[in-house]
């Protein structure tokens, strides 16, 4: 497998780095191809790679945190595992041009207790997110699948013998957790097959079906409202009336659920009779708090709003 190496610093030349990545399925979004990515869907990725949507060149706060803390994570890794030889990857973008798969590895490591060089993927998170998202009920660390897929891609393109994620948890201190990633050949083989199919879909202009529970923002960006367009006739579309009816039923169910919740809260307030806490027979605790909401201003934003208008009945 031919591998190209492009030296580029994303912090100093983010536009150039994004242009390099645009021609490939990168390790960070490869999970979307397999349907396991937490933030990106295959439909959205198709729209991006087909040029219908543009990737935001702005670095998000989370991206900035990860970039600035990457050196700290690698320093802690070197201190925690002094027998490892840890080397930063030094801003190199790797790509397999025949497969159109690429990655920007964070670091490499050599462990004298096993053969070959390993690739290290650095992730950062807050202690709150770590407790709720990365920990199982048994207290074990459980990596999201898309991160495991990212590590497998990076290992393949760097020809690494093993891979690990260095997770830096930011709270009152800096805690580093090292998670080994099994390099399942089957996942790589399936990814290569799915990536080929994905790019063929781009060439044929055939997008994958949208996931309506996740692709709302992508669809809104793809189809911005245009007051210059004529009224669309959907009278022959049998699904459209069903959508409107289902939406009305869902809205009514939400209203009824809110009314029921409000009534149940009122009954619990009566049960508490001024107490702020109460214990139940099954061990649960009911807590009553008074929330003071400060005044605030909302930043300008835009979002799609759907309303249904019912035609007026003709006068008799």
From TrEMBL:
Enumerate the spans annotated as YqaJ viral recombinase domain: 17-141
Pfam families tied to this protein: YqaJ
User: Which keywords are on file for this protein?
Assistant: Coiled coil, Endonuclease, Hydrolase, Nuclease
Matches recorded under InterPro entries = PDDEXK-like_dom_sf, Restrct_endonuc-II-like, YqaJ_viral_recombinase
For molecular function, the Gene Ontology terms on record are: endonuclease activity
Transmembrane: present as a keyword of the record? no
Coiled-coil ranges per UniProt: 243-270
Its recorded name reads Phage-related protein endonuclease-like protein
| Organism classification | Bacteria, Pseudomonadati, Pseudomonadota, Alphaproteobacteria, Hyphomicrobiales
């Amino acid at each position: 497998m031919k591998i190209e190496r492009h030296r580029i610093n994303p912090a100093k030349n983010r536009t150039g780095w994004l242009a390099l990545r645009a021609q490939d399925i990168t390790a960070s979004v490869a999970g979307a191809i397999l349907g396991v990515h937490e933030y990106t869907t295959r439909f959205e990725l198709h729209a991006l790679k087909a040029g219908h949507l543009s990737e935001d060149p702005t670095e998000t706060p989370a991206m900035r945190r990860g970039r600035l803390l990457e050196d700290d994570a690698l320093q802690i890794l070197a201190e925690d595992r002094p027998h490892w030889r840890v080397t930063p990857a030094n801003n190199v973008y790797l790509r397999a041009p025949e497969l159109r798969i690429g990655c920007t590895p964070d670091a490499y490591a050599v462990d004298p207790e096993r053969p070959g060089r390993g690739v290290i993927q650095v992730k950062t998170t807050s202690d709150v997110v770590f407790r709720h998202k990365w920990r199982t009920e048994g207290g074990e660390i459980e990596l999201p699948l898309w991160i495991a897929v990212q590590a497998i891609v990076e290992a393949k393109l760097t020809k690494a013998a093993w891979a690990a994620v260095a997770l830096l948890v930011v709270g009152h201190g800096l805690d580093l957790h090292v998670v080994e990633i099994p390099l399942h050949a089957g996942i790589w083989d399936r990814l290569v097959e799915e990536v080929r199919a994905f790019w063929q879909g781009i060439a044929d202009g055939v997008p994958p079906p949208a996931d309506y529970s996740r692709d709302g923002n992508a669809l809104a960006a793809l189809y911005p409202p245009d007051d210059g367009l004529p009224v669309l006739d959907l009278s022959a579309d049998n699904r459209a009336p069903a959508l409107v009816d289902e939406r009305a039923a869902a809205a009514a169910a939400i209203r009824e659920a809110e009314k029921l919740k409000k009534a149940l809260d009122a009954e619990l307030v009566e049960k508490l009779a001024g107490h702020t806490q109460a214990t139940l027979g099954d061990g649960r605790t009911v807590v009553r708090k008074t929330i003071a909401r400060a005044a605030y201003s909302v930043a300008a934003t835009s979002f799609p709003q759907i309303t249904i208008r019912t035609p007026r009945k003709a006068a008799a």
